[in-house]
Amino acid sequence: MTSPSKQKVTINLPSDVVRAYRLAAVRSGVPDQTIIEQAVRQYLGLNDLERLQNAFAHLELNETDADQLAVQVVKDTRKARSKA
């Protein structure tokens, strides 16, 4: 689930959000950044993209087609979430 390379970012979050992700990290036994990364990946639909890439790896899509498919999956995921 982790990216091969990481980039440091600085964000400001409400204190209740910070308390919640820190508590989730302690309960899960993982670092804070793992909880935040998992939440962002889930929100952006990146986990779905990884599953889709694995499912269609045998199709040998070129980079452009793969990018278009990935963008469409993200759009569909966001649309489904907004309806829920």
Tell me the number of strands. Answer: 0
First-last Cα distance = 26 Å
Helix content: 55-70%
The general outline is elongated
What is the string of SSEs from the N terminus onward?
HHHH
Strand percentage: under 5%
Largest sheet: none
Oligomeric state: single chain
The gyration radius over C-alpha positions equals 16 Å
Counting H and I runs of at least 4 residues, what is the number of helices? 4
What's the overall average pLDDT, rounded? Answer: 86
Structural class: mainly alpha
| Contiguous uncertain segments of 5+ residues | none
Question: What features would you describe in this structure?
Answer:
This protein is mainly α. It contains four helices and no strands. The longest helix has 21 residues. It is elongated, with a radius of gyration of 16 Å. The model has no long low-confidence stretch (mean pLDDT 86).
Brief summary of the model shown:
With 84 residues, this protein is an all-alpha fold.
Write the layout of secondary structure elements.
Elements lengths: L14 H14 L3 H13 L1 H10 L7 H21 L1
Helix pairs in contact: 1-2, 3-4
List keywords for this structure.
84 residues, mainly alpha, 4 helices, 69% helix
